[in-house]
């Protein structure tokens, strides 16, 4: 039996997140208090007491989801994973889980990432949309036929791809997807065009922070969004992380490769359980916990 630990990204947050873990475990309290101190504001106050709108602020959302995920994984009694992966932001949680990044270093990178993405969203307004019921290749083909910037950003599971880009190009692509037989092409309530070329300024801003952060040899492979392949070399892990903001999240391919490499039990750590549903759609024979 081989265990894979997986970690969700932005969008999984909810009011009151992580409060039950904080109340029940001294280690959770220590990690949350350390996070507040490192960030210079009370992230936990927003997580525990803030509204859904408060939690939607990118500078809050990303550290909140990361913190909840890492705390949840630390408190689990399951032995170490044989492999890890994270969806977009969740890749940072996965890097902590496999020992490639220290908790504190990853938190500071997540905070820098959130601020860089927020600035890029304000400078280059964009949007995203979920496309249901079309093959991945068809979604890519339609995006390439649209004028303006629109790309396939998240390959979540068979029949579910998220596209990202300029607002007008997204609108045009949604019409074309429906004409091509998509069951739905639904714009998402996000503040920008994540995992698209519009995030290039954010990638540049984040680059300096990533380059000065120490990456360590992980004790197990991490399947990264950019390649969907197992990586253990700290420098390759760093390079892939540098590309992540403008490249697609190859989640379907990552899970398929993890299963091909022996994973038969998947455990999701963090707020919500969105990845569990995706994994079941990718392969309904593996155990999902």
Describe the overall structure.
With 289 residues, the chain is an alpha/beta fold. It has helices at residues 19-24, 26-39, 43-49, 52-56, 58-75, 90-97, 103-123, 136-145, 167-179, 200-211, 234-243, 251-260, 274-282; strands at 2-7, 83-86, 127-132, 150-157, 160-165, 184-187, 222-223, 230-231, 263-268, 287-288. A four-stranded parallel beta sheet has the order 2-1-9-10, with helices on both faces. Strands 4-5-3-6 form a four-stranded antiparallel beta sheet. Helix 2 runs antiparallel to helix 5 (58-75), helix 2 crosses helix 7 and helix 6 (90-97) packs antiparallel against helix 7 (103-123). The radius of gyration is 18 Å and the shape is globular. The mean pLDDT is 95.
Taken as a percent bin, the fraction of beta residues is: 15-25%
Helix content: 40-55%
Please compute the radius of gyration using only Cα atoms: 18 Å
Largest sheet: 4 strands, parallel
Number of strands: 10
Report strand order across the widest sheet. Answer: 2-1-9-10
Low-confidence stretches: none
Distance N to C terminus: 14 Å
pLDDT averaged residue by residue: 95
Number of helices: 13
Shape category: globular
- Helix/strand order: EHHHHHEHHEHEEHEHEEHHEHE
- Counting helices, strands and paired strands, the structural category is alpha/beta
